[in-house]
Design a protein that fits this description.
Helix content is 42%, strand content 20%. It is α/β, with parallel strands linked by helices. The longest helix is centred in the middle third of the chain and has 17 residues. The N and C termini lie close together (11 Å).
């Protein structure tokens, strides 16, 4: 299964969620291969040596660059089995995510599935409370029920891996994995 993390906006968590989902799937005993389409290769440095190849892995996770109309990204959208469109709860991210979801819906294969997911959610803020309703009303794809919380542990996971995550984040990431691959 090829899972693409895509959004025309940078800073919404494409790389972070791709990394976290790879950790969760590996923790569950799945074989994972990670590809980084972003020229910055911010995620690619963590996966320069991988246990599985693209041909042998059960899951291929693809991190895309922060553009939606690039030919490489468009081709990746048409190839993916599942597309995750992350969104952080801020006005600029919401607007770009809504327009990105329309492109995804128009380009994805008929047998593929696509979801929006709220990322970096600070509990209790007005925008974090309003964002799910804004997305449910305007997103061109379903919004997953899971929300990934804002936590320092997520940043620490880049160094410590799965063990660096607190229980709440682990549960949210496992729920993301389950909702994605179901």
């Amino acid at each position: 299964m090829e899972i693409l993390f895509v959004n025309g906006k940078g800073g919404v968590g494409k790389s972070t969620l791709c990394y976290l989902l790879s950790l969760a799937l590996k923790e569950a005993g799945k074989s994972v291969f990670v590809k980084d389409l972003d020229p910055q290769q911010s995620l690619g440095q963590y996966f320069s040596e991988q246990e599985f190849t693209e041909d042998s892995a059960e899951f291929i996770l693809v991190d895309s660059m922060p553009v939606i109309n690039d030919p490489i990204v468009k081709e990746a959208i048409t190839r993916a089995d599942c597309l995750i469109v992350p969104c952080s709860p801020d006005p600029f991210s919401l607007a770009v995510t809504i327009s990105s979801s329309e492109v995804v819906k128009n380009l994805m294969r008929a047998d593929a599935k696509a979801f929006g997911v709220l990322n970096d959610v600070e509990t209790g803020t007005n925008l974090s409370k309003a964002a799910p309703d804004i997305l449910r009303e305007n997103l061109h794809i379903p919004l997953l029920s899971v929300q990934i919380p804002h936590r320092q542990a997520i940043k620490r996971a880049a160094f410590d891996g799965w063990k660096g995550l607190d229980q709440d984040v682990r549960e949210a990431v496992f729920k993301l994995a389950l909702e994605t691959i179901a």
